[in-house]
Design a protein that fits this description.
Strand content: 5-15%
Number of helices: 7
Distance between the termini: 21 Å
Shape: globular
Oligomer: single chain
Largest sheet: 2 strands, parallel
């Protein structure tokens, strides 16, 4: 949501892409629809691709989502090559639409340690886009924009306020609780709550258990 709002602030038209990869937290797709509408996206594509066929993650397989706190190792909520897959799809749509700026909301400061959120990955994919596309070969470079990359969760929460966004319509939780609320204990909930607390901004999130 914040990344898309930054794209809009930068003067871009918004084409929003969400991936329905049969993830455990399908509720995030409803949030994506709300956000795309609120930001005035010209088009919002929800593209199905069933990564449960591969498994290998607590988000796409019969593996429990950890609830004990953010650790130092890459957690089981890592989905193999997820952002590579997502950005490849976004790149294909961008080239088809004549777009050259692709925004992604990855964060490498307050996060769970996913390798495909690091600056090296973003830089590498941008180079890949140049080599892999007709537009790139013809000198029309793609830019992979990651405006949240080096921000803390507190800074992201503050940025949402600055941009006039209703963060209450966004979604973070990996393991939604009954009633469609955030569980409060997964890594994503903990990092979200921590960001609001550190920013001194009221958290609009409803948690089943205080994060």
């Amino acid at each position: 949501m914040v990344s898309a709002a930054r794209a809009r602030e930068d003067g871009h038209r918004l084409l929003a892409l969400s991936i329905d990869y049969n993830q455990r937290h399908q509720v995030e797709l409803a949030a994506a629809r709300r956000i795309a509408h609120a930001l005035g996206a010209e088009r919002h594509v929800v593209l199905p691709i069933d990564l449960r066929a591969f498994g290998g993650s607590a988000l796409t397989d019969a593996i429990d989502v950890p609830k004990t706190g953010v650790g130092a190792d890459i957690p089981v909520t890592y989905v193999p090559a997820r952002n590579t897959i997502f950005l490849s799809l976004a790149l294909g749509w961008a080239e088809a639409m004549g777009a050259r700026d692709i925004y992604i909301g990855v964060n490498a400061l307050d996060y769970s340690g996913y390798p495909d959120c690091r600056p090296e990955f973003i830089e590498g994919f941008e180079k890949l886009a140049e080599l892999a596309t007709k537009a790139g070969v013809e000198g029309e470079a793609f830019r992979i924009r990651a405006p949240l990359q080096h921000m803390t969760k507190a800074e992201i929460a503050a940025e949402a306020v600055r941009l006039g966004l209703d963060a209450g319509i966004s979604w973070s939780c990996y393991d939604p609780a009954p009633g469609g609320v955030h569980c409060g204990k997964c890594d994503s909930c903990r990092l979200r709550a921590k960001g609001y607390a550190e920013a001194g901004i009221p958290d609009p999130t409803v948690y089943a258990v205080p994060a």
